[in-house]
Specification:
9-stranded mixed β-sheet, alpha+beta, D-amino Acid Aminotransferase, Chain A, domain 1, binds 4'-deoxy-4'-aminopyridoxal-5'-phosphate, Probable branched-chain-amino-acid aminotransferase, 15 strands, Aminotransferase-like, D-amino Acid Aminotransferase, Chain A, domain 2, Aminotrans_IV, 8 helices, 30% helix
């Protein structure tokens, strides 16, 4: 694979980052994942805007213009011949060659790394046809989940707890209310009404969430942005999640309780179709 590190393209075997990098030592960095369908980027603009916000919230200098970032994404997709897959981008605070809790001098250049992941069949996923089974776990993450940091240990553990329970993913619960999935935003459907948690510091402001809610409203579906409990979710007609890498994913079971008839719901399936159609059309 050809990867990108700090202004240069190179084979992955030649790419290196300092052992003092704060991304490595302190999870002091942010990331974005952009899907590629038909060799084009899905919602690049949304990811670029959120990246700028994450960096600003952490006072990490924005080291690359949006135009250059787009060019790097496109070049990696071209060089690696990605038809369906992902582009991963990570920017960390870099390092001044030592370990210290205090941030290094503001002139220290951030570390910028991008690589691709080839995922043939990403859009036509068998998992989406089956629907996901989720378990609920306590949300014990930090309080700024709106910043897309590389601090992903707990979500990763949550995913493993789900696997050990024979399920696909975990929904995290705080004070009885669902926050989000380990790597996606969570929704329930009651009749024609789509319910998803309101934005705040408690969840990541999903790029896919914003697009899906817009399409839902355009299709005259009712959307309610509010907290819902895990018990309300188990009693819902259907449920689903959204993320840039899995689009709209139906959820068919929560903590062993089947939703509806235990197959992907009508609303989730329709939204997946609309999302993929519209986003393919707008891809760059
Ligand atoms: N919440 C969390 C915790 C996530 O990790 C992700 C995916 N990165 C999402 C939500 C979905 O966000 P997006 O639609 O921008 O991929």
């Amino acid at each position: 694979r050809t990867v990108y590190v700090n202004g240069e393209y190179m084979p992955e075997t030649e790419a290196t980052v300092s052992i003092f990098d704060r991304g490595f030592l302190m999870a002091d960095g942010v990331y974005e994942v952009t899907s590629v369908l038909g060799g084009k980027l899905i919602d690049f603009e949304g990811h670029a805007v959120r990246l700028a916000r994450s960096l600003a919230e952490l006072e990490i200098a924005h080291p690359i213009s949006k135009e250059d970032l787009l060019e790097v994404h496109r070049e990696l997709v071209r060089a690696n011949e990605i038809d369906e897959g992902l582009v991963y981008l990570q920017i960390t605070r870099g390092s001044d060659g030592d370990r210290d809790f205090a941030f290094p001098d503001p002139d220290t250049p951030p570390t910028v790394v991008l690589f691709t992941q080839n995922k043939p069949g990403l859009a036509d996923s068998p998992a989406a046809k089956r629907g996901a089974k989720v378990i609920s776990i306590e949300d014990i993450r930090w309080g700024r989940r709106d910043i897309k940091t590389v601090q992903l240990l707990y979500p990763s553990m949550g995913k493993m707890m789900a696997k050990k329970a024979g399920c696909d993913d975990a929904w995290m619960v705080e004070d009885g209310f669902v926050t989000e999935g380990t790597s996606n935003n969570a929704y329930i459907v009651k009749g024609n009404r789509i319910i998803t948690r309101h934005l705040g510091n408690e969840i990541l402001h999903g790029i896919t969430r914003a697009a899906v809610l817009r399409f839902a409203r355009e299709a005259q579906m009712e959307v309610e942005e509010r907290s819902f409990t895990i018990d309300e979710a188990k009693a819902a007609d259907e449920a689903f999640t959204t993320s840039a890498s899995a689009f709209v994913m139906p959820v068919v079971e929560i903590d062993g309780v089947a939703l509806g008839d235990g197959t992907p719901g009508r609303v989730a399936s329709r939204l997946r179709e609309i999302y993929l159609d519209e986003m393919r059309r707008a891809a760059v």
